[in-house]
Write a structure and sequence with these properties.
globular, Aminopeptidase, 3 helices, seven-stranded mixed beta sheet, binds coenzyme A, GNAT_dom
Length: about 180
């Protein structure tokens, strides 16, 4: 299947884009996080931009959101692109679209308006294997963020965390605590 890569700033999404993306996201994440008129998560960090793969009819079948942020580390700040809302239409799971989406992300991490030093992602254990197979590298850093339950309690701990090279090589990834300075993605 030939897929078209679409990239858009959050602020440039049309109502039709939101409707099509929320259909995909609700199917991939059943529950209250996404709604028919809301293609962004209710509790997690709002993204700055979206990258998705659309079929010949323009229907989005794979999607991710990114937000660039200066994270705090013990050796200074690092510009990361937090990635979240990674979703493939359930009808297309296991057909390689998730991997294709991650390849599309790479070009944007290295140059252009979404570029960052590293891609950054945290996930449930159940999907860690997917990221390990699609170009992400697991790291052992503890992280600090605001709890999604109230957006104000500071939490620190270890969660499955992956990084991906952008403008800098993975050998530059710092050790120690990564302070996300806000909600996680
Ligand atoms: C996780 C998800 C994005 C994977 O997308 P996909 O298009 O089915 O994945 P692909 O077909 O591109 O698979 C790429 C590789 O990852 C592997 N993989 C896919 N899902 C996996 C999983 N849950 N656990 C371990 N490996 C997985 C595939 O076997 C394949 O491996 P291979 O290269 O050795 O053949 C998709 O299942 C999804 O949307 N799930 C629901 C939403 C979700 O949980 N998103 C992640 C939130 S953090």
């Amino acid at each position: 299947m030939t897929m078209r890569v679409v990239t858009a700033w959050e602020t440039a999404l049309s109502e039709a884009d939101h409707a099509a993306l929320s259909a995909l996201l609700q199917a991939a994440f059943p529950g209250p996080e996404f709604a028919p008129d809301r293609s962004w998560p209710a509790s997690w960090a709002r993204k700055q931009a979206r990258i998705w793969l659309a079929d010949a009819d323009g229907t989005p079948l794979a999607h991710l959101g990114i937000e660039r942020r200066l994270a705090g580390t013990e050796s200074g700040e690092v510009l990361i692109a937090g990635v979240g809302d990674v979703a493939v239409a359930p009808s297309h799971h296991g057909t390689g679209l998730g991997a294709e989406l991650m390849r599309a992300l790479d070009a944007h991490l290295r140059g252009g308006p979404f570029a960052a030093d590293f891609g950054f992602l945290q996930c449930r254990e159940a999907v860690a294997g997917f990221y390990a197979r699609t170009g992400w590298t697991a790291v052992a850093n503890p992280t600090r963020h605001l709890a999604v339950s109230d957006a104000r309690t500071v939490r620190e701990g270890h969660w499955p965390t992956f990084v991906r090279p952008g403008r800098r090589p993975l050998t530059d990834w710092p050790p120690g605590l990564i302070d996300l300075r806000g909600l996680p993605w």
